[in-house]
Amino acid sequence: MPEAPRSAKRFEGDCKAFTDYSDYRDSGGLPQRKRDTAIGAARRLGFLEHALAEFESDMAFDDRFVLADRRSAGEAFAGTIVEAEPGRTVTTDKNRRVPRPRVTVCTADPVRLAADTKLISPSMLAGHKAVIVSVLPDGDTTRVTVEITGGMGRGRVPKQGTVPEPGQRVAYLPDPGWRPAPQFPASDATPWTHSAADGVAAESAVPEDAAAEEWGNEE
User: Fold this and answer.
1) Which residues contact 184 (CB under 8 A, 6 or more apart)?
2) What does the pLDDT look like over 84-135, one tens digit per residue?
3) Most buried one in 50, 52, 65, 170, CB count within 10 A?
4) DSSP element (H, E) containing 79
5) According to the 3-state scheme, what is the secondary structure of 136-174?
6) CB 80 within 8 A of CB 105
7) CA-based nearest residue to 106, from 150, 140, 56
């Protein structure tokens, strides 16, 4: 079985994360807490949710059956280009003309993605990015108009092959993308509902054998 195209990138990311944490500990960094604080738990949850979204996106890129599963759930779509405006441009706030081609995809998939959803495509060149402009039902099919925003080169004219042409079949799914770090209150400003009571150690909030009591896994 051939190696998945994005497995090397995931492996490199895992190695970097391991090395960064190892260097942090070697430089005197504190170990991971046995139980996170409320803010620490929120930060960790945000990180894990984003990591999961990236992994699911990679799986859809690597495995057409995973992509098909997401298409059947309305979380992705594939179809044929029926209209294209490859020469479309817009003027930015800095009064600069940039290419923003638009294409319309006719798909039989149950599209449940809203306008302004950012997209990536496993069927286009690396770096291809787009955003949904409109989703309109058309009988038994759906017409999804997308605006291409990235992966076209630095010139005023998109590079050859970076804009899908009429008759070409393409697939799109949501871009997990970069997310800004969420803002949380300082530890001393945490609401009382999310912090331990005065004089009560956070470590004693949950008994050590809580899992055993709940699941009956006592030895």
Assistant:
1) 39, 42, 43
2) 999 999 988 888 889 999 999 999 999 999 999 999 999 998 889 999 999 9
3) 170
4) strand 77-85
5) EEECCEEEEEEEEEECCCCCCCCCCCCCCCCCCEEEEEE
6) yes
7) 140
Q: Which residues of 80-112 are buried (b: 16+ CB within 10 A; e: fewer)?
A: bbeebebeeeeeeeeeeeebbbbbbbebebebe
| CB burial of residue 219 (10 Å; 0-12, 13-18, 19+) | exposed
Q: What is d(CA 77, CA 68) in angstroms, rounded to the nearest whole number?
A: 9
Q: What is the pLDDT of residues 161-211, one digit of tens each?
A: 999 999 999 999 999 876 667 777 777 777 766 665 444 444 445 555 544
The whole-angstrom separation of Cα 177 and Cα 22 is 27
What pTM value is reported for the model?
0.73
Q: State both tokens at 140.
A: 């038994």
Sign for the CA dihedral angle at 167, 168, 173, 178 comes to negative
